[in-house]
Design goal:
Blueprint lengths: L1 H28 L5 H11 L16 H11 L14 H11 L9 H10 L6 H17 L2 H11 L9 H9 L8 H10 L12 H17 L5 H8 L29
Length: 259
Amino acid sequence: MKSSSVKTRLAAAAGLLIVLAGGAWLWIFRGLPAGEELRAQLLARYSARAVPSWTPIWTVSTQLQTTVVLWEDPDFPSHHGIAFREIPRAMVMDLRAGKYASGASTITQQVAKNLFLSQEKTIRRKLREAVLAWRLEDILSKEQILEIYLNIADWGEGVTGAEAAARFYFGKPASGLNWAESAMLAGLLPNPRRRQPFLDLDTAMRNRAVVLKKLLDCNEITQEEYGRAMATPWFPPAPLPQIHPAPGEPPAVHPGNAR
């Protein structure tokens, strides 16, 4: 009799766990597109076919492509949407900050978040982001994912995409960016408001130097290319773009102060 009662309780507990797990699964993942539905949504909304101003990957300089990947997601060529080795580091940063500070988001996860999810910093959104990133890697090539990212990345001041950023900061197309320019643009990611060369040139140049050093350390550029890029000054394009500092920020740097 006692054995039967224990079995009944265990069965009830197991059933409850199954129901809770199923409910949690639906709560987290319900409504996420997959497979051909996901591919169709991407083609309909985010491609050269759908957006006249879309910039194909082959029109973006290889220097910018290389620099953005190395700076934002060095494991991008080899992972399947999720950089598992970065998760412990992000957890440590979160614990030190006492809040959700670092999400260890790959380029693919950023594409998933920016195209399909909200910007809220919650565990649920991170889980949905990871699942979508995995699904994106199933249906798109790395080149396609990077192309989408370079078209939707936020470079500050309402500037979206590599082509617009190249023209805004350097007055040239993305196809003509060199290592110095690519390092400055990559260094603006993922928080461009804090590293604007128009607003704080010293910080932007220091950050550019960090990116260039990483390129050198990873053998993406030679010592000669590194030295040449480090010595390259930055001059804002003419006419100077309209910059609107956020409350409390200093005014935009005058062209004569650029170096």
